[in-house]
Design goal:
With 178 residues, the chain is an all-alpha fold. 82% of the residues lie in helices and 0% in strands. Among the domains are: 51 residues, no CATH class; 39 residues. Helix 2 crosses helix 3. It is flat, with a radius of gyration of 34 Å.
Length: 178
């Protein structure tokens, strides 16, 4: 197959190779620039079908495919982790507090729980951030449109604080019997 391609390249004329690389429109632009004595490099870059952009596009596709593969692998690992976690949980039911666990065993379990928790919270945050409604301009900048708006916001906050304090006071008096 490669040999056939090389032989085809040998038999192709320069014009045919140019049309293959730059297309009809690109070849016309190159011819026009050549007649006018202008630089051909910008035109070559613009119309080149085999430029780095094509390679980058392939790289992005490969990256997407790899990420898809990574998701599948992560799901398989999580399934295995859940299966072992259930088995370990059942094994630990048979071990008393007096018997205890070796330090390294407890450390591994604690580290695994912390790592899984970190991943969960990271993905949960990303998901919730993506689903959040768009914030009004004032909230994004942290500024108020005018003094009246600032006072209204602070008054609402103060009212909530006072309601909370009153509810605590009522609970305290009910506990003390007053």
């Amino acid at each position: 197959m490669i040999k056939q391609v090389k032989e085809a390249d040998k038999t192709m004329s320069r014009a045919a190779k140019g049309h293959e690389k730059y297309g009809k429109e690109g070849m016309q632009a190159l011819a026009k620039a050549g007649k006018e004595g202008k630089s051909l490099d910008p035109i070559r870059k613009k119309y080149d079908k085999y430029s780095e952009e094509v390679k980058e596009g392939l790289g992005e596709l490969a990256d997407a495919a790899e990420r898809d593969h990574e998701v599948q692998m992560a799901r398989a690992d999580l399934y295995k982790l859940a299966k072992y976690a259930i088995k370990l949980h059942n094994m630990l039911k048979g071990i008393s507090e007096a018997e205890g666990l070796e330090g390294w065993v407890q450390a591994k379990i604690t580290k695994a729980a912390a790592d899984i928790g970190s991943v969960y919270h990271h993905l949960d945050y990303q998901e919730s951030e993506a689903n959040m409604p768009e914030m009004p301009e004032m909230a994004i900048e942290g500024k108020y449109k005018n003094n009246a708006q600032r006072k209204a916001v602070h008054a609402a906050k103060d009212e909530k604080k006072n309601e909370y304090k009153e509810s605590l006071r009522a609970k305290l008096y009910s506990k003390l019997g007053k």
